[in-house]
Amino acid sequence: MKQSQYGVKTGGRMPSRSVGRSVTGSRQGGGLGSQAILLLAVQGLFGVASALSGTFIPVYLWKASQSFMLIGLFTLGQYVTSGITFWLAGKWVKEHHKMYSLRLGIVLSGAFYFTVLLLGPQAKTYGIPLGMLSGMALGFYWMAYNVVYFEITEPDNRDRFNGIAGILGALSGIIAPWVSGFLITTLQGERGYKLIFTISLVIFGLSVVGSFWLTNRGVQGEKYKWFLGFEQLKENGNPWRRMFAATVAQGVREGVFMFLIGLVIYIATKNEGKLGNFSLITSLVALISFWFVGKRLKPSNRRISMLAGTIMIGLVILPLFYHVKYSTLLIFGIGTSLFIPLYIIPMTSRVFDLIGHSEQSAKNREELIVLREAGLIVGRVIGLAAYLVVISMTQTPAAIVTLMFCVGIVPIAGWFFIRPFLSANNKFR
Q1: What is the number of domains present in the chain?
Q2: Mean per-residue pLDDT over the chain, rounded
Q3: 144 in a structural domain
Q4: For residue 44, what are the CA distances in angstroms to 104, 169, 203, 213?
Q5: What average pLDDT score do residues 383-397 get?
Q6: Adjacent-strand bridge partners of 2
């Protein structure tokens, strides 16, 4: 998400002399200003459009190809291209107009679903190019979004923003996939897919329109430093060494879970409606959990809360070793929804607190956001590589569940790396 160009004093507070506080829409005391609320609205629309169709893209490709390998190659193209796009878009966002990058990402997301709509079942022939188009869209969008997010939030309201963002994501997951599953089953497959892809295009359009009310910060004349992230990692004692390792650990889990869970549910049930119901139930639980954790999580309890979250999102996979069926998948999904906020909220908040912990660091926010994304991409590719190796040897349920468990416990390593930054004094050393 995007952040502001203004420096934040060591200890996490933005200086009172920060220019343009009214422009950012930021408020003291943990409240959210108008720009933060508008950004949440734009992201909410983007999330609904993505949830309507994105949940079913792996299923759609699977039904056309019956190939686990195709799904993996599509996802690989998506991850690698999004990382490269992040790196390249950083220069545009830092030196020119960040809102153009945000809107281009939304437009390209629409173009991706429009292309799938045109190709129909033949989309299976273009798995890697389609993944690259999707990755390009995600790279442009999230590069800009992350910078804007940084600009309009501060350490005292970042947990609240992330909690609300999680609630909106949960709401999207409650409504959109259930509607999609209902339409696909009611309209019997291909007609249903065409309809949900079309609805997604319309909502992406609304998201673009909403973005025109977001304020674009003028550039500060700073040049984009292509290899600043690499320089941070080379420096002994630099806190980004630990934070980068933590984001890699986060990415390993995401690299598999972001596409595999929905596919496993469909294969186990052969019913898109069941996948929609799964998303409805688990997202409702996530909504309540994100709301509760967003209100209760404090700097004083971050460390123990995050540790509990990382352990539990691994343990909830264990029922799948008994049997991969809808009921055990539902237990896994509900458990994950309950505990994932304990992990993801402090993880996201602290990495952006690090970006803004000094005035110079905040000036380099674009480069540091790219560094954060690089860590996620490295982790996702590692997780995906493990998936590709496993499915090239065996595709038994036991092997897939073992893979899920192995990548699902990696966030514990992420907690180990980030734990010095979870204390109440907000110091990065």
Answers
A1: 1
A2: 86
A3: yes
A4: 17, 7, 10, 15
A5: 94
A6: 146, 147
For residues 52 and 200, the answer to whether their CB atoms sit within 8 Å is yes
Higher pLDDT pick, 221 / 92: 92
Of residues 2, 332, 305, 349, the one with CA closest to residue 146: 2
Cβ–Cβ under 8 Å, residues 46 and 204: yes
Its domain, for residue 86, covers: 31-213+227-421
Statement: residue 8 has pLDDT above 50: no
| Continuous segment of H or E residues that includes residue 361 | helix 359-363
User: Has residue 7 been placed in a domain?
Assistant: no
What is the C-alpha to C-alpha distance for residues 105 and 145, in angstroms, rounded to an integer? 10
* Distance, CA of 3 to CA of 362 (rounded, Å): 8
Cα–Cα dist 135/54, whole Å: 13
User: Is 12 a member of any domain?
Assistant: no
The count of other CB atoms within 10 Å of the CB of residue 29 is 6
**CATH at residue 175:** 1.20.1250.20
* Per-residue CA distances from 23 to 162, 215, 218, 222, 230 (Å): 20, 7, 11, 20, 32
Angle between the 34-54 and 190-211 helix axes, to the nearest 10 degrees?
170
The one-letter code for the residue type at 94 is: K
| Helix runs in 223-271, H state only | 228-234, 239-269
Alpha-helical (H) ranges within 55-189 are: 57-65, 68-95, 98-119, 127-152, 158-186
pLDDT above 90 covers what percent of the chain? 59
Q: Does 338 fall in a domain?
A: yes
Token pair belonging to 232: 């941070």
The rounded distance, in Å, linking the Cα atoms of 389 and 402 is: 13
Which pLDDT tens digit goes with each residue over 291-345? Answer: 898 888 887 888 999 999 999 999 999 999 999 999 999 999 999 999 999 999 9
